[in-house]
Design goal:
- InterPro entries: ELP6, P-loop_NTPase.
- It contains 9 helices and 9 strands.
- The protein has a 9-stranded mixed sheet with strand order 3-2-4-5-1-6-7-8-9, with helices on both faces.
- Strand 8 and strand 9 form a beta hairpin.
């Protein structure tokens, strides 16, 4: 509890980590606010069903608060003003404004995870996929970092919950704004899960490697960070991990 986890990927797709954490926290009975900016609800629901979790049922019982970024963007660009006049929240309204202020999105997160009377959820979780979309929609790197900072304070510190964020990018990326955000988040993360494509290219039996960086240096005492590296293969309903070079196909 109270930890910030950064999911990072380079030369591969790390979205399997998002699906893992989403199903993991829902099965654990936590209240989850999922800011999904990359895919539709039906996409996440289909994958979750393979993992034994129903997002539809979680929404109905109030355990999952789902923000479908694709639909919200279309509403902001082509929708009418009826929603705002009816008092409905518009978390991504910065798209149509001159300033890249993410305060409305933060208010949505804070309200979604705020404790209510009779609320018995054992934990609070903010899951965001993926952070780079906010930059693509026009938010500045400073606004994105401010948003993440306030979410950490509200969720990790005050509610003793967890924040899990996915961000794409690598050292050879030409997107300077995205690299600035990712690098800054690496310095403030308690745990970094970094999925990388194989340097040797595609392999049908080894899909990539995962670096697990535990930021012990953030704890009192200033110990050295702990780094573990595994290779993995993504299967239909799970992911197999093994030490580098010890794939069953290689052995």
């Amino acid at each position: 509890q109270g930890k910030f986890t950064l999911l990072r990927d380079t030369r591969t797709d790390g979205s399997f980590l998002v699906h893992h954490f989403l199903s993991f926290y829902l099965r654990a009975g936590c209240k989850v606010c999922f800011v999904a900016l990359l895919q539709s609800f039906s996409h996440y629901n289909i994958v979750a069903q393979k993992l034994g979790v129903s997002l539809t049922a979680a929404k109905e019982r109030g355990q999952l608060v789902f923000l479908e970024g694709l639909a919200s963007c279309l509403d902001m660009l082509f929708g009418e003003e009826e929603e705002e006049q009816a008092g409905q929240p518009r978390p991504l309204r910065f798209i149509s404004e001159s300033t890249s202020d993410l305060r409305a999105l933060f208010d949505f997160v804070r309200t979604s995870l705020a404790p209510a009377a009779g609320d018995a959820w054992p934990g609070r979780v903010l899951l965001l996929d993926d952070l780079g979309v906010l930059l693509s929609l026009g938010a500045s790197p400073v606004a994105v970092l401010d948003f993440v900072h306030y979410c950490r304070v509200a969720v990790c510190c005050r509610l003793q919950g967890n924040v899990v964020v996915l961000a794409h990018g690598g050292e050879d990326s030409e997107d300077e704004e995205n690299e600035l955000v990712v690098t800054s988040l690496c310095h403030h993360s308690d745990l970094i899960l970094w999925a990388e494509g194989l340097a040797t290219g595609f392999c049908k039996d080894v899909h990539g490697q995962l670096k697990i960086i535990r930021r012990a240096s953030l704890q009192p005492g200033g110990e050295q960070d702990v780094l573990q590296t595994y290779q993995y293969k993504i299967q239909d309903k799970n992911v197999t991990f093994f030490a580098r070079g010890l794939s069953a196909a290689v052995l």
